[in-house]
Specification:
By secondary structure, the protein is mostly beta strands. It folds into 2 domains: about 120 residues, Trna Endonuclease, Chain: A, domain 1 (3-Layer(aba) Sandwich); about 120 residues, no CATH class. The chain is built from 3 helices and 13 strands, in the order αβββαβαβββββββββ. The strands form 3 sheets. The chain has a 5-stranded mixed beta sheet, with helices on both faces. Strands 6, 7, 8, 9 and 10 form a 5-stranded antiparallel beta sheet that branches. The protein has a 3-stranded antiparallel beta sheet with strand order 11-12-13, with no helix packed on it. The longest helix is centred in the first third of the chain and has 16 residues.
């Protein structure tokens, strides 16, 4: 019998889901991210990572720390969180707790950190076990977290050449909440595609629709040496749209 997810993990996923549903499409959301620390030089776990979606830009990074605990957030939690922000290059951060925070924590937070309250009763009707299973054979309990819904248009021209018809194709894009593997779901044919970003011999993937575009994942690096995995829709020669990202 499969063990249920820990309640702290459900709390993290709920926060990620709420943020993704409310955030501008210019940003993408990654639950349970693992990012190389610029100062520490080791991988840091981030409950929820928010980055720019459409380009290799890590200058607007936001991180979220979920504190599912009965005690209020104190100044020591804020100070530790600010250290994490500095290490992963975040410009702003959110501390989220069901129990509130002390006055000292509020004063220490200042402009770079926001403290929010999310009651535990919001978990009552939240069930990430209904999300699609990760397609990675070595990932046994991961679920796909959808955080983008790109629409690609196919333009059809009439025989006379005087009329054009645009047909939209909507997709879901996201990544596994454990291993981070990118996934794409085509709503037209229902195919679920998984895309590793670290294979040099990967030339792209198409769904059963076999339309004139394909999906490709890669690892990119910005001018400061920060790396990210990126998911692209390749629409044609010289036409590539970055639809999702995950910090590394």
């Amino acid at each position: 019998m499969k063990k249920p997810s820990p309640s702290w993990e459900l709390y993290e996923r709920l926060i990620a889901r709420m943020i993704s549903d409310q955030l501008s499409t210019d940003y993408c959301v990654t639950p349970n991210a693992r990012i190389s620390g610029r100062i520490s030089g080791r991988k840091r776990q981030v409950d929820v990572l928010i980055d720019a979606r459409h380009n290799t830009d890590n200058t607007r990074r936001i991180i979220v720390d979920a504190k599912k605990r009965l005690r209020r957030i104190d100044v020591t939690h804020v100070e530790a969180f600010r250290g994490l922000m500095e290490d992963v290059g975040a410009t702003h951060g959110y501390l989220v707790s069901p129990a509130g925070y002390t006055k000292a924590a509020e004063r220490r937070a200042q402009d770079e950190v926001s403290i929010r309250i999310l009651p535990l009763d919001r978990l009552d009707e939240f069930d990430p076990s209904t999300w699609p299973k990760c397609a990675n054979a070595t990932c046994h309990s991961g679920r796909v977290f959808w955080d983008g819904y790109p629409e690609i248009e196919l333009t059809l021209q009439s025989f006379s050449g005087n009329e054009h018809r645009r047909i939209p194709f909507v997709h879901y894009v996201g990544k596994c909440d454990r291993c981070g593997l990118f996934h794409v779901k085509c709503l037209s044919c229902g195919d679920l595609i998984s895309l590793p970003e670290d294979k040099d011999d990967d030339y792209g993937h198409r769904c059963r629709c076999n339309l004139p575009w394909f999906w490709l994942a890669s690892i990119e690096e910005d001018e400061n040496g920060c790396r990210s995995a990126e998911l692209h829709a390749v629409l044609g020669i010289g036409s590539i749209m970055t639809v999702d990202r995950r910090g590394l």
